[in-house]
Amino acid sequence: MSALSRMREDIAAARRRDPAARSALEIAALYPGLHAVWAHRAWHGLWRRGLRFPARLGSQLTRCLTGIEIHPAARIGRRLFIDHGMGVVIGETAEIGDDVMMYHGVTLGGRTRDAGKRHPTLEDGVAVGAGAKILGPVRVGARSVIGANAVVTRDSPPDSVLVGMPAKARPRDADESVKALLSAPDYSI
Questions:
Q1: What pLDDT digit, counting tens, does each position of 58-78 carry?
Q2: Model confidence, pTM
């Protein structure tokens, strides 16, 4: 898939997920979450080619411009949408599947200085509420929803709802929409 096709796909994903989006031009020009993801693709390419310093330098420049810090080694799937974005941190060994959505203040962080896998894996279709912290090499199952300000430190199965400090997982009911879960006062702390 060409870079332009991926950018169009990202814009369409933002338009589907953000009711405030009015046009593709507005999204492309004014959404820092998209800018951070697009820049990450360039820095990740440099990282994979062994150009570590330029990749890190570029990611820090992107952080200054967008308020979103994505390590160039992080692996990100298609159609990631970061809404608002300020304060998002995605660590070096983080892995993000396709169709993931996250809000401002989210951290995919580590809990150890040891080498190897230190950051979370979010499977396809995960939604992460504002201020949530997912820490360590945990795996969040596909289509799960993490409530605002939750602190996730353990693996969770697919189709879970995770809330609290530390977050506790419960099965997600088939009729519970992501939008309803992320806006319900019961799922924020």
A1: 999 999 999 999 999 999 999
A2: 0.90
